[in-house]
Amino acid sequence: MIRKNPTGHLPVVAESAFIDPTAILCGKVQVGENVFIGPYAVIRADELDADGGLEPIVIGDNSNIQDGVVIHSKSGARVEIGEHTSIAHRSIIHGPCHVGHRVFIGFNTVLFNCTVGAGSVIRHNSVVEDCQVPEGFYIPSTSNIHSATDLSRIETVTADASSFSEDVALTNRQLVAGYKRIQNEL
């Protein structure tokens, strides 16, 4: 469902994107080319900052927002998801937040007030808040990364993890084409 927020902003969705009919996009949301937004995802840009302003939630080209993902932002802050990025099932991205290109965010992961560098992989059930994750980092499942975390202990992305991330992104781009083809069938 595409709907306005209380200030009248309406999502802008590229024609080539596929939005599952059960997903909700509300407000100042920008969805790029060939994006897949899965069932029951909620992307909501509706909270204003102290001056009445609102930054957008931007989903980059060829990215996928999987089933049950929630993307929202506190006080009108910007959320940006890079190109060719996968946000896996039931994750929460709460802005302000910037996720770089070709990033994989695993199931049930929570990102808040952070930057995740390009090519990084954050595995399942992790929390990343109040920090900057450099490019190409690998954060294992169930990690808790925050401003006081010593990132020198974190590994860089392996070829296997990078290959997995690319495979997930490719699979979801193929889903966009398939769902776009049948979207008007009963």
Automatic annotation (TrEMBL):
Species whose genome carries this gene: Ectothiorhodospira mobilis
Segments traversing the membrane: none
Keyword Transferase in annotation: yes
Keyword terms of this UniProt record: Transferase
Protein name: Carbonic anhydrase or acetyltransferase, isoleucine patch superfamily
Entry GO MF terms: transferase activity
Lineage: Bacteria, Pseudomonadati, Pseudomonadota, Gammaproteobacteria, Chromatiales
InterPro entries attached to this UniProt entry: Gamma-CA (IPR052265), Hexapep (IPR001451), Trimer_LpxA-like_sf (IPR011004)
Pfam families: Hexapep
